[in-house]
Amino acid sequence: MPHTLTLLFFLMVAALVATWVIPQGAFDTELVDGREVVLPGTFEVDDEAEFLNPITLFTAIPRAFAAAQDIIFFLFIIGGVLAVIRKTGAIDALLGRMLERFGGRPGTLIFITIFVFALASSAMGASAEYIPFVLILAALCRTMKMDTMTAVGIIVVGYGIGYGAAAFNQYTVVVAQGVAGLDTYSGWQVRMGILIPFVMIGAHHVYSYSKKVQLDPATSLMSGIAPPEAGAPPKDYPALSMVHVAVLVSFIVALGTAVWGIATQGWYLTELGAAFVILGVVTAIIGRIGPSMMAKEFVMGARDLTETALLVGVARGIALIMEDGQILHTIVNALSVPLGTVGPELAAVGMMIMQTILNLFVPSGSGQAFVTMPLMAPLSDILGISRQIAVQAFLFGDGFANMIVPTNAVLMGILGMAGVPYDRWFRFCLPLLFKLLAFAAVCMVGMVMFGFS
C-alpha cells in the first residue's frame, strides 16, 4: 500500500477533480451571534463558476499547513514534553504498575479507558487532549502482548463514541442546538443513557481484536510495521518513586487545568500547549534534568513527530481545495433533497447517513453544524420530525465518522504519532463504524417513534 502521505495527496487530487465536475454553488448566509449561518431554500448554482487551476493543488499544501498550524505545533510540544517526562522514568514506572494491576485483565483495561475517553468527549468535547496518551498506551498494550492498533483503537473509539453520544459537548451539542433553536443541553438525559451501549459495542470490537492478536501475533494489522521507538516498552520497569509520583501528579494537574480552561474559559490548543510547556519545565525541575539536557530531549521528542505534522497539514488541504472550489454547499444540497421523499423514520436515518458522508468534506464538528443544521432543522419540521432528532442525526454522523475520515486532523495526528498507516486503520475501523451506525439507526427510529424532543 502507498504511504499514508501519498494516499492523502491522492485525495487532494480527487478533491481538485471534483471541483471541475461538481457544479459550483452556494446558499445565502447571514450572521447569527457573530457566526455565518446558511439560509435554507436559497441554494443557487453559480453560472459564472471559475475552475481551479491545477497549481492550486500545490499552493493548497502550504496554506493547509498554515490553517492547521495550531494542532501541528501542539503536536511538536506534546512530543517534546513527553520525551522530557520519559527521561525521568515516570512513564516506565507507571506502565510497570499498570501491568501489575491489569496484566491479566486486558478487557477491564480496554473498557475502562474507552469509557473514560468517551465520557470526557461527551461532556467537554475532548479530542486533541488525548494525543499525550498515545505512546503511553501503545507501550502498555504491546507489553500486554497486544499491539499499537489496540492502543489507537482505545483512544479513537472512545473519542468518536463520546462525540456521537455527546451530552454537553460545547463544539457540537451547543452549536447544533443553538442553530436549531433548541434549549442548550436539552435532551442530555437520553444522550447520556445511550452512551454506555455504544461504549460496550466499541469496547467489544477493540477487545475482540486484541484477543486475536494475543493468541496469534500474526493476525495483527500492524504486522511488518515497526512501532515508534518512543513507544517501545522497556525490558525492566523501575520502581515507582516519589519523584515519579510528583511528575505524574504534575501531568494530571496540567491536563486538569487545561480541561478546566477549555470547558470554562474558552481555551483551546494555544493555552493547552502552554500548559504542557509549563509541565515540561516543572518536570525537568522535579526530575533534576538540567536545561541543556531538557532542551536536547525536547528537540528529539518533537523531531519524532515531524511525519505526523506533515500528515495533519496535508489532510487539511483536502477540505481547503473543496472550499476554494465552492462545491461544499452543492454537496449538502444534493444530499438533503432526497430526504423529503421518504417517511419520518427513514428520513431520520437518512439524515444521519448524510451527516456521516458530509464529515469527509467538513470534518470540523462546529463547522458542519453551521453548514448543515440550518438545512436539517427546517427539513425536520416538514418531515414531522423533532429538531432534537435532527441534532442527534448530526451528532451520530459527525462523531462516528470522526473515527475514520482522513480529513480529521486529530485522527491523523494520533495515527501518525503511533506509526499506524491509514489503510491498516481503515481495515480495523470500518467494521466498527458499520456496527455503530446500525445501532444508531435503531436509536434514530426509536427516537422518532417515541417522540424524542
Task: Describe the protein in words.
- Helix content is 69%, strand content 3%.
- It is mainly α.
- It has one domain.
- The chain has a two-stranded antiparallel sheet with strand order 1-4. Strands 2-3 form a two-stranded antiparallel ribbon.
Structural class: mainly alpha
> Averaging pLDDT over every residue, what do you get?
84
Strand content: under 5%
Total domain modules: 1
Q: End-to-end span in angstroms?
A: 47 Å
Strand order of the largest sheet: 1-4
- The number of helical segments is 19
Give the overall shape, derived from the CA principal axes: globular
What's the short story on this structure?
With 453 residues, the chain is mostly helical.
Set down the secondary structure blueprint:
Layout: H1 4-21, E1 25-26, E2 29-32, E3 35-38, E4 44-45, H2 56-67, H3 69-87, H4 90-102, H5 106-124, H6 134-143, H7 148-164, H8 173-180, H9 188-215, H10 242-264, H11 269-286, H12 291-303, H13 306-324, H14 328-336, H15 344-358, H16 365-383, H17 387-401, H18 409-418, H19 422-449
Helix pairs in contact: 1-13, 2-13, 3-11, 3-12, 3-13, 4-6, 4-10, 5-7, 5-9, 6-7, 7-9, 7-17, 7-18, 8-16, 8-17, 9-19, 10-11, 13-18, 14-16, 15-16, 15-17, 15-19, 16-17, 17-19
Salient structural properties:
453 residues, mainly alpha, two-stranded antiparallel ribbon, 19 helices
